[in-house]
Fold this sequence. Notes:
The structure holds 2 protein chains of 2 kinds.
Chain A: E1 21-24, H1 27-37, H2 47-52, H3 62-77, E2 83-89, E3 99-110, E4 115-123, E5 129-139
Chain B: E1 10-12, E2 16-17, H1 20-30, H2 46-49, H3 51-58, E3 70-79, E4 88-101, E5 104-114, E6 120-130
Amino acid sequence: MKTISTLDFDRVTPGQTLPPLTKHVTVEQIRQYAEASGDRNPIHLDETFARSAGLPGVIAHGMLTMAFANQMVTDWLGDRSLLKSLHGRFAGMVLPGDDVTCSGSVASKDDETRRLVINLLVSNQRGEKVFNKGVAEAEFPATKEQ
Amino acid sequence: MTDARWVGRSYETAPFDVTEQSIRDYMAAVGDLREDDELIAPPTYAMVYGFDAYWQLWTDQEVALDVAHLVHGEQRFTFQRPVRPGDRIKTTGRLTAINSRGEMELVSFELKARDAEDRLVSDGTALFIIRKP
């Protein structure tokens, strides 16, 4: 089945910003993510263990933060199948109670390959980067005329 | 410091059967709830079907990574095609490097996920950081 994107590639302009996405992270969400992903590492679930490992307490999975960045991009694209790559650094810890905001902008657009490169950043409520050097690539299907 | 002789060791998951429930549980957990005409997994679901490869590395008693002090430093994915209920995916992970940077140890892990027809579904690169105790 051919997928139809809700985003019109031809109207995208380099430098354009994506609608930001803010998430409030809770202990319950971290537990739910541990169950859904299978990653039950005690640094995410056990407060005593996390502290003994030198952490301020349980921390969110880095992959939960990356999932937020993924969602910001695919919500904007309107089609999850257009995302071709995702990359970034987990620059800081995310703790329960944090509000993290994903932001992104179009770094480049290639009309030949119909690919977009999008720069991504996730920051917490203090403005500290928790996910940086983020890059997503999206590819749009060829138009019928081509 | 982890012994560098383990570089090259690889781990393979059992076939992971993608179900609608598993995708929906993941979507609910991360809060990515948009409904499309056809259910496909959010791309970062690659961490779910590939997870056991990571787990095997972290719990390998011979390699003996100091997992209590291990954090995820960096992650890259490339996606060859969307993942849907009914897919059966096997992921192979390979320990590709162990380096030190200051007091930290950096562990690189490369993954390839293939479907039942042995076609590439996604690949991934993870960098783990082991902090000094």
